[in-house]
Amino acid sequence: MRNGINCKLVSEHLSAFVDEELDFDFSSEIKRHLCECLDCRRKFAKMLKLHYLLKKYFAGESLLEHKAKFVSNLKFVSSVDFVTQK
Ligand SMILES: [Zn+2]
């Protein structure tokens, strides 16, 4: 377990987190921080949308897989009471 996870650390690794490039322990810590921190949750939601759009344009045939991940990530975000901006 790593200590001292904070907003700065989370935002530095958010992109890798969205891409699932982090090790399991670290991404669990980030997830836990996201559950507690509205600011980071907002950043995460924005990052998700951005990644999804990029992948939509560049990923080609693996789009469906990314869509499934995107949806499951969105479910995670909404499961911690994230209110989407309209
Ligand atoms: Zn935070």
Break the fold down into its secondary structure elements and pairings.
Elements: H1 7-18, H2 24-36, H3 38-58, H4 63-79
Helix pairs in contact: 1-3, 2-3, 3-4
Bound molecules: zinc ion.
Task: Explain this structure.
The chain has helices spanning 7-18, 24-36, 38-58, 63-79. It is globular and about 40 Å long. The protein is an all-alpha fold and 86 residues long. The model is unreliable at 82-86 (pLDDT under 50). The chain is built from 4 helices and no strands. It binds zinc ion.
Report the end-to-end length measured between terminal Cα atoms: 37 Å
**Can you tell me the number of structural domains?**
1
Coarse structural class: mainly alpha
What gyration radius follows from the Cα positions, in whole Å?
Answer: 13 Å
Q: Please report the number of helical segments.
A: 4
Q: In total, how many beta strands?
A: 0
Enumerate the spans where pLDDT stays under 50 for 5 or more consecutive residues.
82-86
Query: In sequence order, what are the helices and strands, one letter per element?
Result: HHHH
Helix content: over 70%
Features of the shown structure:
86 residues, mainly alpha, globular, binds zinc ion
In short:
The protein is mostly helical and 86 residues long.
